[in-house]
Amino acid sequence: MTKAPGKVNTYRPSVGHTIWQNRTLILMCLPAIAFFFVFAYMPMPGAYIAFTNFQYNKGIFASPFVGLKNFQFLFISGQLGLLLKNTVLYNIAFIVLGNVVQLAFAILLNEVTHKAYKKSAQSIMFLPYFISDVLVSLLVYNLLNYDFGFISHLVRSLGGEMPKVYQNANAWPFIIVAVNLWKSTGYGTVVYFAAITGMDSSMMEAAQIDGANAWQRIRYITLPTLKPTVIILFLFAIGGILKGNFGLFYNLVGNNSMLFKTTDIIETYVYRSMMNSFNFSQSSAVGLFQSVVGFFIVLGANAFVKHLDPDYALF
Amino acid sequence: MTNKIDMRPMHTTHIKKDASQITINTITYILVTLFCLLCILPFWMIIASSFSTEEAIRRSGFTLWPTAFSTYSYELLFRSPDQMIGAYIVTICLAAVGTLVGLFLISMTGYALQRKDFPYRNGIMFYIYFTSLFSAGLVPFYLLIVQTLNLRDSYLAILLPLLMSPWLIVLMKNFVKAIPHEITESGKIDGAGDFRIFYQLILPNLKPALATIGLFLALSYWNEWYYSSLFLTSKVDYRPLQYHLYNVINKVASLKNSVAGSNVVITDLPGETLKMATAVVATGPIILLYPFVQKYFVAGLTVGAVKG
Asked: Inter-chain contact B62–A143, Cβ cutoff 8 Å?
């Protein structure tokens, strides 16, 4: 027990004592601490591999050090630029279109008074979120396959000429954005819908009594009330702008190199160059670049959120 | 809401309001119903195609109704059901063990981290949360599993990484926060230790949280194909369901293997319908369960999504 100068009766227990007092709570957290130590912190020194010419049998730290060569190659070859462009552009499309559609659906659904319809619509819209990307790829194949696809046959029966989608890189940005919209709309609608239902309804009732019509109520009450939620979700989405949805892209495109120009994102490149071409060093260089730059973008986004509303900041 | 207004017959803007409301409702019903159809029809098409003959698909493509009805693809699948049964057993075991262990660890951690009298809660929370902000990337993680832990071809390489995530711990923390602190206090007064308070007083009150987070865990195990594709080589006899489906869809060899021993000439293999039938059998249970469990997902999103 020590007494701080100038203060009376300040009891400061020793660290050991505090630990002992909280031993049960610490023990309860220990499995999680160990889990994140092994699966998240232990690999971190391994990021060193990005600066080596990795040789599998030697392991990470005995492989020859090559400095920034891997990064240099990726920059000069234009590979990194292409990956960044694709990843960021897809995310912008996902964020903007996704939020607009989700917001619109949530607001429209809120205007419906038929309770059973509201509920079942939400459940059905949520269904695509539930299934694996493996099945999603099969659904897309069902629709777009040149020989047997539903849409291919529809186009042909209407006298049109169906392009060979799986050989046409330019078609894929539209397909991927549409599929992502299909998968994420239900999820986002439920989130926004919850935010709307949590709104104070007295303002809405007052507006109704004052004779505001449905459009006016949406324009002047619902949208302004949702603005903070939208901005914050938007900022966090921006924070993850370098992170791609690997499962979606890899299952839809796979190893179809004809489509890479418009569909290759950071995650798919990292996966392929490791699993298919065993180029561990370059793969990890791209991954490390993504982690480091992504980290600072998240910090920036969070600082911005904190500036707007400290309650919503992550840390 | 409209009913409330309608009860005021004196109200002058009655008709105008109704008009805008009717427009908006019509738009909603059309758009939302169309989107709902878009959400269901692709699944329906897979089921319909799986009951079609291969010739019908070659002739008129995938349709919403089988032009020639056949159960041949299912007969083939069930003639040599080894792969499918194995995949089911592996997936169910992984999902059951992973969900139970994960739930226990997540709720225990979530409880400790929301206790305001626990001085290390912010430090530990940051330690956990940091991992979602910065990671070493896929390659070092892969080498950790394969070289350091030597878990290639082991189901542990799938079971362990999916056990918990920072997001699920935060979600659980938010759920536990809603339980009054007085329960912990009363437990303390009665002389119960922290673990006993958690196990006997908190856990029984956490049922909605356990249902929601349990479902998220179970779903991630059920839909697992990613870690399988990284860590399970062809030496493993039985793969998790979705990875099995992945192989049947993407690798001709796997498609053939899936009906190996059923005495079918490879050239006669009904490739397309077989893929569809595999998809139906691999995904069917989760779609059937969906109507009963989806409300817990909605609950989870509402608690965790905005402030997460």
From this structure: yes
Asked if pLDDT for residue A41 goes beyond 80, the answer is yes
* Count of A-B CB contacts under 8 Å: 307
B81-250 folds as MetI-like fold (1.10.3720)
Tell me which residue has tokens 């702008």: A241
Q: How large is the angle between the packed helices A172-197 and A223-239, nearest 10 degrees?
A: 130
Higher pLDDT, A36 or B53: A36
Residue A50 counted as domain residue = no
Domain hosting A246: range is 69-312
> B139, A270: Cβ pair inside 8 Å?
yes
Polymer length of chain A? 315
The reply to whether the predicted model has a pTM over 0.90 is no
User: Who's near B104: CB < 8 A, 6+ residues apart?
Assistant: none
CA distance B262 to chain A (A): 25
The burial class, CB within 10 Å (0-12 / 13-18 / 19+), for B132 is middle
Span B136-192, pLDDT tens digits: 999 999 999 999 999 999 999 999 999 999 999 988 998 898 888 899 999 999 998
3-state SS, A50-70, equals HHECCCCCCCCCCCCECCCHH
Is residue B214 within 8 Å of B99, Cβ to Cβ? yes
pLDDT at A229: 82
Does residue A55 lie in a domain region? no
Instruction: Provide CATH 1.10.3720.10 ranges for chain B.
Output: 81-250
CA dihedral (B39, B45, B51, B57) in degrees, to 10, reads -170
CATH code, domain carrying A210: 1.10.3720.10
The ipTM, to two decimals, is 0.88
> What are the chain B neighbours of A30 within 8 Å (beta carbons)?
none
Question: What is the residue type of B268?
Answer: D
Contacts of B195 in chain A (CB under 8 A): 24, 27-28
Beta-bridged to residue A194, according to DSSP, are none
Residues of B whose CB is below 8 A from A43: 135-137, 140-141, 143-144
